[in-house]
Amino acid sequence: MGSGMAANLLKAGFSLNVYNRTAAKAQALVNAGARLAATPAEAAKGASVVISMLADDAASREMWLGKNGALDGAGKGAILIESSTVSPAWIAELATAAEQHGAKFIDAPVTGSRGQAEAGQLTFLVGGNEETLRAATPVLKAMGKEIVYLGPVGSGAKLKLINNFLCGVQVASLAEGLAWIERSGLDPEKALSFLKKAAPGSPLLGAISARMAGHNYAVNFVLRLMGKDLAYAEAEAARCNVDLTTAKASRGLFEAAVKSGFGEQDMASVIEPLRNK
Q1: Which tens digit of pLDDT belongs to each residue from 164-213?
Q2: 56-94 burial: b if 16+ Cβ within 10 Å, else e
Q3: Fewer CB within 10 A of the end CB, N or C, for the chain?
Q4: pTM of the predicted model, to two decimals?
Q5: Alpha carbon distance 176, 172 (integer Å)
Q6: How much is the pLDDT for 277?
Q7: CA distances (Å), 136 to each of 51, 78, 130, 175, 253, in order?
Q8: Are residues 20 and 141 both part of a single domain?
Q9: Domain extent at residue 87
Q10: Which one of 45, 160, 196, 197 is the catalytic residue?
């Protein structure tokens, strides 16, 4: 995701420093004109906008606040943008650290897959100060098709978890439904054709059912990250006194798929442990 976003910033003419824990993964960006930094602090030094796209709270914390972290290198008044899918609790902590440093901060997680990131068609869900968002808008527009402003810091992170919770539950239920179809004697192609047009149909069902039926697990969304997102969603909903029972059940399916070796494949592969029972 981050590679596609960075590539579009270069295409839009922005000067770009990049950092990746695995430097080789950033080589294509360097070839396209980016400067490779040795540390997050080095990448952030002198930048007017600093953007993070990482897997989880732990990776984000290390990047921003760890040794040679980006916050150490960020200048006073720089705009810091966290686009990872992380917990609202961590966003609140990071926003406080940014304020104490004298930097500006918005949370702007994205919806879309790797394809949308490469095409500059992401949607940004934004929480934070509106003036800061206005200043960051040209950067976000270079990477996305839509910016949805939601309110105070943390608002983007909250809606992103709700979005991924609903997606994760649907993908898990689709996996069980398709496994049922395959064992029932029904023609899977005819059954899925009907379901995609019937009440359960959605863009997600259409895309994921095709991958499941075709055993096509080239990564659009890494499976293990959906289990992480569902766990974050459960914790955040509990803070609002909501028990996400469907998230718990769905997370169990994703965790079983991780244990079966599908953690780094597309989330559509959550069906495979069900097929092998």
Answers
A1: 999 999 999 999 999 999 999 999 999 999 999 999 999 999 999 999 99
A2: bbebbbebbebebbbbbbbeeebbbbbbbbbbbebbeeb
A3: C
A4: 0.96
A5: 7
A6: 81
A7: 10, 10, 10, 39, 38
A8: yes
A9: 2-152
A10: 160
